[in-house]
Amino acid sequence: MTKDDIITLPNEHLREKSARIGVITDEIKKIVQDMQDATMDWEASRAHEVGVALAAVQIDQLLKIVVVRNNYDNKDDRTFTVFINPEITKLDGELVEDYEGCLSVKDVYGKVPRYSKVKVKAMDLDGREFRVTAEGFLARIFQHEIDHCNGIVFVDHIKDKPEAFFQLKEDGNLEQLDYDSDIKNSRILW
Ligand SMILES: [Zn+2]
């Protein structure tokens, strides 16, 4: 599976709820591998970005699966942790605004408010329940990815915020987008 298998807005599946998984079959394991392959292939095509995480809906599988890179500060580490049926059990700390992008939202970044701490409950590929506590950027990743499982895209959180939208320039810097001309009436984002 490659980056071309990743669906992007305005594909309406991105706004649908994914289904819970009962039994972990070989088919589920194949989807997990496809998600990792697609993420790494996407990363190989980008100069300034890291493929940090992916939800199954992004390869058009409406199932509650999230994969998160184990060490997104080191591009050579290609390993992931798999979260089946991930759920946020607690949001904590304060709301912090920071930049967010998405493999399913082409060329648009946003400054999105997220809680600084989360507790997550999920199942691993052996069907065992496990829990994770995360802070900072990792807490942001979980909120972003578990939103995907519920049909929410990051831009939905900032829809009415004219100052929250950015694009990545070729030099790797972010530049604010013109809300009225590029965002407000976009036929791609909404
Ligand atoms: Zn995303």
Provide key terms for this protein.
190 residues, seven-stranded antiparallel beta sheet, 20% helix
Could you walk me through the main structural features you see in this protein, from its secondary elements to its overall organization?
The protein has three helices and seven strands. Strands 1, 2, 3, 4, 5, 6 and 7 form a seven-stranded antiparallel beta sheet that branches. The longest helix is centred in the N-terminal third of the chain and has 19 residues, at 26-44. The protein is 20% helix and 34% strand. Zinc ion binds at residues 102-104, 144, 148.
Q: Order of SSEs, N→C?
A: HEEEEEHEEH
What compounds sit in this structure?
A: zinc ion
Secondary structure category = alpha+beta
Q: How much strand? A: 25-35%
Given the C-alpha coordinates, what overall shape results? globular
Mean pLDDT, all residues = 97
Number of strands: 7
How far apart are the first and last residues' alpha carbons, in Å?
27 Å
Give me the number of helical elements: 3
The helix content, as a percent range, equals: 10-25%
Are there runs of 5+ residues with pLDDT below 50, and where? none
What radius of gyration results from the CA coordinates? Answer: 16 Å
Main sheet properties: 7 strands, antiparallel
Assembly state here?
A: single chain
